[in-house]
Amino acid sequence: MSDKIKDILFPVITLVVIAAFSAFILGYVHNITLEPIKKAKDGNELQAIAQVTGEFDNNPFAEKMTIFTKSKKHKLTMYPARKNGHLNSVAIKSYTNTGFGGRIELMIGFNVDGSIKSFKIISSNETPGLGSKIDEPKFKEQLEGFYPQRQILKVKQDGGDVDAVTAATISSRAVLRAIERAFDAFNNFNSGK
Q1: Using CA atoms in the order 166, 170, 172, 176, what is the torsion angle rounded to 10 degrees?
Q2: 1 pLDDT higher than 80
Q3: For residue 147, how many other CB atoms are within 10 A of its CB?
Q4: Largest CA distance in the chain
Q5: Could you tell me which of 80, 65, 168, 183 has the C-alpha nearest to residue 124?
Q6: Does residue 131 surpass a pLDDT of 80?
Q7: What's the half-sphere exposure (Cβ side, CA atoms, 13 Å) at 187?
């Protein structure tokens, strides 16, 4: 074999071996971290369910179900919260892609009559100090007991009954859209369709 071919072949073979080894290590690390990441995510969701539904003595994860909006365009996950065998509320994981920072995921608690119990932001990329205020009590408390069938689930600038977070109207609208999506799915589920 000529020296020119050796000079080309040796670095190529070395690079291929290093790339294969790196891919193997990355795959191995990915596989061993999947379960802990899933457990942490489930733990965060269970904590959010507890925050938006209050007390329950069942396992909402064991009873979770997929529900759809009336248009069937969106599927969401609903977690029933039971106390002493009676359904006292549900948590619905919803989302919107219309936040100022993109996607916002939240858990919304509904009483059995359809009124909002509470909500918790699960993930968001909203601007710290502005859009992130959508998860603070001043904004959240005005939605506790809010009944979307009797009140207008829009910010006041759009003719609704909800005060937007100052300087974060886009984020406020996005949260209300996600809650509206969850309410639509909740109503569709209750209607049996």
Answers
A1: 160
A2: no
A3: 14
A4: 85
A5: 168
A6: no
A7: 15
Burial (CB < 10 A; 0-12, 13-18, 19+), residue 53, is buried
Using left for φ > 0, alpha for ψ between -120 and 50, and beta otherwise, residue 111 falls in beta
Distance, in Å, from the CA atom of 178 to the CA atom of 171, rounded to the nearest integer, reads: 11
Three-state DSSP at 98 gives strand
Cα–Cα distance between 35 and 57 in angstroms, integer?
Answer: 25
Q: Which of 154, 63, 53 is nearest to 108 (CA)?
A: 53
Q: What share of the chain is helix, strand, coil (3-state, %, to 5)?
A: 50, 25, 30
In the chain, what percentage of residues exceed pLDDT 70? 98
pLDDT digits (tens, 9 = 90+) for 139-172: 999 999 999 888 999 999 999 899 898 888 899 9
Buried b (16+ CB within 10 A) or exposed e, 166-183: eebbbbbbbbbbbbbbbb
DSSP letters for 122-182 = EE--PPTTTGGGGGSHHHHGGGTT--TTTS--SBGGGTSSBPPPTT-HHHHHHHHHHHHHH
Give the separation between CA 56 and CA 144, rounded to whole angstroms. 19
pTM, rounded to two decimals: 0.79
At CB < 8 A and 24+ separation, what contacts does 149-152 make? Answer: 149/114, 149/187
Structure tokens that stand for 118 in this block? 């509470």
